Amino acid sequence: MSANGPRTKLASIAAAALVALAIVPALAATAGAAPMAAAPAAPSGPSSAWAYGGQGWGSGGLTVGPVTYAWNASFGGVVILNATNTSNTTTMLHASRTVGVWINASYAGPNLSLAYHYHALEVDNAYANVTTAATVTLANASVVPALGILNASANAKAGLQASVTGTMGNESADAYLNVTGTAQAALAFSPALGLIPLNLTGVSSWDASAMVSGNASWNLGWNWSAHGWNGTTASGSNATGGNWSTATEVTVTGHLVGVSTRFADHHPRLAILLGFSGPFDLYDGFVLIPHGFDLFGAGGRVFGSHALGASAIASEYVFVNEGRVAPQSISAANATLGGSVAIPTALTTGGGATSPAASPSATPGATLWMQPETPSAAQAQANCLQFGCSGTASLGLLAPIAVAAAAIAAVVGVVAWRSRRRRAPPAATSTSPSAISPAGADIPLRPQP
Questions:
Q1: What is the mean pLDDT of residues 135-161?
Q2: What share of the chain is helix, strand, coil (3-state, %, to 5)?
């Protein structure tokens, strides 16, 4: 066996264990908060405010002989909403959505140590004029009144920073990636795009279509760097963007999944799964983000060759209060994430040795429940997610990220919150931090009418 063999094998085993222990419990959410593109003029009618959010923390470790693994993670999502009536049938909604994810993990063994670090944040601001005079088509082909969108606008900011570093004797290796991006959209629907039937009694599924017009644009920028065990280095930066201004048809599909009682206020709510087909992703009932803004998307990413992994929202439920559906009815949510992570070759091989046949990876999943809470509590939680929770360092999303010439700039990996069409929730992982539960828990299926 070559001199590089034992340490190559050790690094590979350590990397695999690091990934398995660090990433399984550490994914979840939906979110936002920031300035606004093309915000509607403020109306003068009566208004109301409400919010929902949730956070989860997890930590753990394992010691096997002289080898120690440890991880900790925190994550959460918050939505703060405001509704202002503009007529008997129309309401202006505003949502500030924030999501943050932090993961730290380490491996320590004889002559080898590895550390994984991950920060991700998205901040969205969205407006929509909604109406109770829209329609949807039920599974039995009948057309019924529904809550729908007349027009909407949104502004999103996102960023992630991640790194993997390792030392083996007197040698070291590391990889970093730093990504930031912004997106904006201003849209109008003709006719109003139906979302949820006003009367859900006896309803199982529905759909609605409309033409959407307007404009959207987005941009992404990233820096990356890597340093191998044998002293080789590589680095670079790039940027890309896109825009949309072509009228097209979009479709919403809805499913009444069941009834959940998993809420701190003890009020039962109906779980609804909404799918959206078109150039945008739909969140929390009316927040529309350009699908091409794929920093947290389900598809491939333009910086993928430098990423440490990827994950995406596998499903997102919104929960509406029982009774007649109104603009203020959406009062809770949950989101299930799944993903995979692979340690770069630079850390799974020693001294330039050949990479293992299969890179270590994991495909975890976890669900975050966002409970009803007061707007003031939600704002405090949003600040925590943006600027640091329980001593967690700030991601610094809105500040430029400087990369020293002699240093390696930040971020490897991707946590994803974008999916063009919602899918069935993945199976629950065996490790679950606080505030996390298997997808669909406490949502018994409602009998078909």
A1: 95
A2: 10, 55, 40
Maximum pairwise Cα distance, the chain:
79
Which is higher by pLDDT, 252 or 314? 252
The pLDDT, as a whole number, for residue 35 is 27
**pLDDT score at 294:** 60
CB atoms within 10 A of CB 336: 27
Ramachandran bin of 28, using left for φ above 0, alpha for ψ from -120 to 50, beta for the remaining angles: left
What are 264's two structure tokens? 């701190």
**How far is it, in rounded angstroms, from Cα 121 to Cα 158?**
6
Pairing of strands 436-437, 365-373: antiparallel
Provide the token pair at 335: 């989101």
Q: How far apart are CA 244 and CA 213, in angstroms?
A: 9
d(CA 225, CA 181): 19
- For 204, counting Cβ atoms within 10 Å of its Cβ (0-12 exposed, 13-18 middle, 19+ buried), the class is middle
pLDDT tens column, 190-244: 999 999 999 999 999 999 999 999 999 999 899 999 888 888 888 999 998 999 9
Query: Which residue, among 120, 105, 178, 118, has the nearest Cα to 410 in the 3D structure?
Result: 178
Q: Where are the beta strands (DSSP E) in 43-170?
A: 47-64, 67-85, 90-109, 112-138, 143-168
List C-alpha distances in Å: 71 to 16, 23, 100, 102, 398.
14, 9, 17, 11, 27
> Among residues 147, 150, 409, 383, which one has the least CA distance to residue 288?
150
Contacts of 371 (CB under 8 A, 6+ apart): 52, 53, 54, 263, 264, 265, 332
CA distance 43 to 76: 32
Compute the distance between CA of residue 109 and CA of residue 89 in angstroms, rounded to an integer.
65
pTM of the model: 0.74
Query: In the chain, what is the straight-line distance between the N-terminal and C-terminal CA atoms, in Å?
Result: 68
Q: Which residues, 6 or more positions from 366, have their beta carbon under 8 angstroms from its beta carbon?
A: 24, 25, 26, 27, 28, 56, 336, 337, 428, 429, 432, 433, 436
